[in-house]
């Protein structure tokens, strides 16, 4: 299947998506041309779901960066918190930058079904993101208790509370799983920015890329719809949006 044919399927749900490979290539081009840095001067942290498909479909060019430092747990929420962000910040080259890529993921099969993918070696589709689908199922069945976060299932309970806090918005959406993913993205974006504001970085730049990571069948690869591309110049304490640079 040609790239444009794959994109036609994904664009029915996410019209601004591009392949994740193209997205990473554009970011590396930006780092080299606009920031005048080499990828080896950039420490990458990602806050994406711990689902194995994200490792399988992660573009190999990301290995040109240092890292990655893993901040995310279920569906990409930055569960490592301030301690993780502080540790990551202390690893960056003095003359370089930190690059934080974050967001939830969702599956779309080659026939356009949202919330599923066909994984390598399996005979049937499976859920993606399973945590988001599980939390949504509990929300639909009124099984989430406000404020209930347990030690035994802390990460899942946190995702449940994020959706519970936007219960009416999610349940009244045309496609509740799509809307749940939007809600989770907003929660991740808010938390990442809170962590960045409370962390000291001894480098030149902080690069923030917030996105919906879209997985597909094993022969389709992954796609990315960018929601934020900000560059913070630490010498001037200014932040600029560079999102136009990443448009398809």
What is this entry, summarized?
The chain has helices spanning 3-11, 20-33, 52-56, 81-89, 130-140, 154-164, 167-171, 176-197; strands at residues 18-19, 42-47, 66-70, 97-102, 105-107, 116-117, 126-127, 205-215, 222-233, 238-241.
Keywords:
LCIB/C_CA, 8 helices, alpha/beta, 248 residues, single chain, two-stranded antiparallel sheet
How is the main sheet built?
8 strands, mixed
Q: Round the Cα radius of gyration to an integer and report it.
A: 18 Å
Approximate shape: globular
Mean pLDDT: 94
Low-confidence segments, ≥5 residues, pLDDT <50? none
Helix content: 25-40%
SSE string, helices as H and strands as E? HEHEHEHEEEEHHHHEEE
What class would the helix/strand composition place it in?
alpha/beta
Q: Give the N-terminus to C-terminus distance in angstroms.
A: 19 Å
Count the DSSP helices: 8
